[in-house]
Amino acid sequence: MVGGTKDKLYRSLDGQYFRFTLVDEGACVGIYCTGHPDLRGRARDPEKLHLYARNNQLCFHPGKEPRSEAEAKLRAREWAEYFCRYVKTGKVEG
Known about the structure:
- By secondary structure, the protein is α+β, with helices and mostly antiparallel strands.
- It has helices at residues 46-49, 69-89; strands at residues 5-11, 17-24, 29-35.
- It starts with a strand and ends in a 5-residue tail after the last helix.
- 16% of the residues are buried.
């Protein structure tokens, strides 16, 4: 991805839909979740969800951000599957 943004739709293994916007931020690719299933009462705490409430950006430890579009797509899919597990079980990972 050279500059700009790309919108992506992902269907989780259990059939739920997520919408992401990938943004070229220079040294890394920002991942913003612009649509996800209902949390069904689970906490929207960024510490548990790994999603900033202010802008819906997936959060990563400094230096662990995706550096390419391919890596960003992979990380978005991994996060979506984590989201599904979190909603189902309430267990926090990472």
